[in-house]
Design brief:
One of its GO terms (molecular function) is serine-type carboxypeptidase activity. By secondary structure, this protein is α/β, with parallel strands linked by helices. The chain has two domains: 329 residues, Alpha/Beta hydrolase fold, catalytic domain (Rossmann fold), CATH 3.40.50; 126 residues, no CATH class. Helix content is 41%, strand content 17%.
Length: 493
């Protein structure tokens, strides 16, 4: 009878317990590791775990999952840079840059970034761990990060899911992390990818103004618009250089353009965009017929699609249509985040692809690798699902002034440098829009000696291509070294 009662009790409680899958919001495990970077063997400690988020009354309302890499042969942390890394979404885990870009382990992919089997990971010989310690942070509902048990999750959404709410609680979290790890003296850097660039741009000013924490650098990987206005004719025109890069890659251009190197060809398209296309779009329906015909012909020449399709869109060609149209006659679509990737739709007709071919491919390789790595090598054990993408919507995007926040942080802090990194084949946060953001970030031009630009022959995650993994990490090394203040150098104009 007792066994029967116990069995019935287990049936009653087990589903609820499994559904909750509780996780300790303040816990960590550390393992000792090694990696060979640029031919040199490096020892380091890898700490992965949870650190709490508290409300204004000191109550734990969430636990954020992080992975922290710290070289173990460094005696003086005061001069050792700390890089704080965020991915985007919003709602995306830190997995992408963690195991494909800057971290000490690299997922198994081919040299162009396509998935291979068996799934897994290996050492990353290009990791920046040789020059900086790194922490990868997962905002609420990404990775293993979750709101705490027993809180009103609906009421708490406004504390986590929005441009400014996100920045506010993450700045508090960073303050706690830096204090716990004894890194206040260290030169500090923020790196963000995609929506993560919105996040770190806002954090730069929030950390200065609310936590008195001053940075040496911010790295914007495949940056968003950062709240910088570009609607109407400007928004429509800025897409063309990306269209041209993609058409060049897929060999859809006239022979005289196709035989040029990409980086020799694109300045011609950029000049046409700013000097001719923007003014033409400003004229709208009142542009002269002859001039419109001339503009349409040039756009078709650069974008690799027909004059008729451009004419039908009144010169304002949507990216969705371009992804469907460019290779339509070959039966393929091109990827949104990386237009080197091809997809196959149910039918060739239509004005947008059925799916994002590149993201589908990436999830093949990333999801098994991060689960294996965290559990097997870093020894973080949990039954909680690792959210590659977590539920964070609706996301409050109102009052996004993150670009202006970054400008203001730079103006207030003479030490602060900013680097943009962009892929030519990224159609989600395209390279010319990123360049436009850099141009518009500081209208005065007084900060441009601390703004730098790097571009790569790949997509949104430029580091997936082996050649660009090497180049982009080397660019990070140089940026970090160049932005370190010399001993005794005052922060002054």
């Amino acid at each position: 009878m007792k066994k029967l009662l116990l069995f019935l009790l287990l049936i009653a409680v087990t589903p609820a317990v499994l559904a909750q899958r509780p996780i300790n919001p303040d816990s960590a495990v550390t393992t000792k590791q090694q990696v060979t970077i640029k031919g040199k063997r490096i020892s380091y400690n890898a700490t992965t775990g949870m650190q709490p988020v508290w409300d204004e009354n000191g109550k734990t309302i969430a636990g954020l999952f992080y992975t922290y890499y710290e070289r173990s042969d460094i005696k003086d942390r005061a001069t050792r840079p700390l890089v704080i890394s965020f991915n985007g979404g919003p709602g995306s885990a830190s997995v992408w840059m963690h195991i494909a870009y800057t971290g000490p382990r690299l997922l198994n992919i081919d040299d162009e970034g396509y998935p291979v089997q068996p799934y897994g990971y290996r050492e990353n010989p290009e990791s920046i761990l040789d020059v900086a310690d790194i922490v990868y942070v997962n905002p609420v509902n990404t990775g293993y990060s979750r709101m705490a048990e027993g809180v009103d999750k609906e009421k708490l959404k406004e504390k986590f899911f929005g441009v400014n709410a996100d920045v506010k609680y993450l700045a508090e979290w960073i303050n706690t992390f830096v204090s716990r790890k004894g890194r206040w003296a260290s030169p500090k850097y923020l790196i963000g990818e995609s929506y993560g660039t919105t996040r770190v741009s806002g954090l730069a000013l929030e950390l200065q103004n609310s936590h008195w924490m001053y940075l040496n650098g911010v790295i914007l990987v495949s940056p968003t618009n950062l709240g910088i206005e570009r609607s109407g004719p400007v928004e429509a025109a800025l897409r063309l250089p990306y269209f041209a890069a993609t058409a060049w890659y897929h060999k859809r251009l006239p022979q005289d353009l196709q035989q040029k190197d990409l980086e020799a060809f694109l300045p011609e398209v950029e000049a046409f965009t700013t000097n001719e296309l923007v003014p033409a779009l400003v004229r709208g329906g009142f542009i002269e017929d002859a001039k419109k015909k001339e503009i349409v012909a040039k756009m078709a020449r650069y974008a690799g699609i027909s004059e008729q399709s451009i004419q039908q869109h009144n010169l304002n060609v949507p990216t969705n249509f371009f992804w469907k149209e460019l290779l339509r006659n070959d039966g393929f679509t091109v990827g949104r985040l990386d237009s080197r990737y091809k997809g196959i739709d149910r039918q060739d007709a239509g004005d947008r692809p059925d799916f994002n071919s590149e993201l589908t491919a990436w999830l093949h390789a990333f999801t098994p690798a991060i689960n294996m790595y965290l559990r097997d090598e870093l020894k973080f054990k949990t039954d909680v699902k690792y959210n590659m993408f977590g539920p964070v919507h609706p996301w409050n995007r109102s009052n996004d002034r993150t670009g202006e926040n970054l400008r203001q942080a730079m103006a207030q802090n003479p030490y602060l440098h900013v680097m943009f990194q962009a892929g030519y084949y990224d159609g989600a946060t395209d390279y010319f829009n990123a360049k436009y953001s850099m141009w518009q970030l500081d209208p005065s031009g007084k900060l441009k000696n601390r703004l730098s630009w790097k571009a790569y022959r790949s997509g949104h995650m430029m580091y997936l291509r082996k050649e660009d993994l090497v180049k982009s990490n080397d660019d990070l090394r140089e940026f970090i070294k160049a932005s370190l203040a010399k001993p005794g150098q005052p922060a002054m104009y």
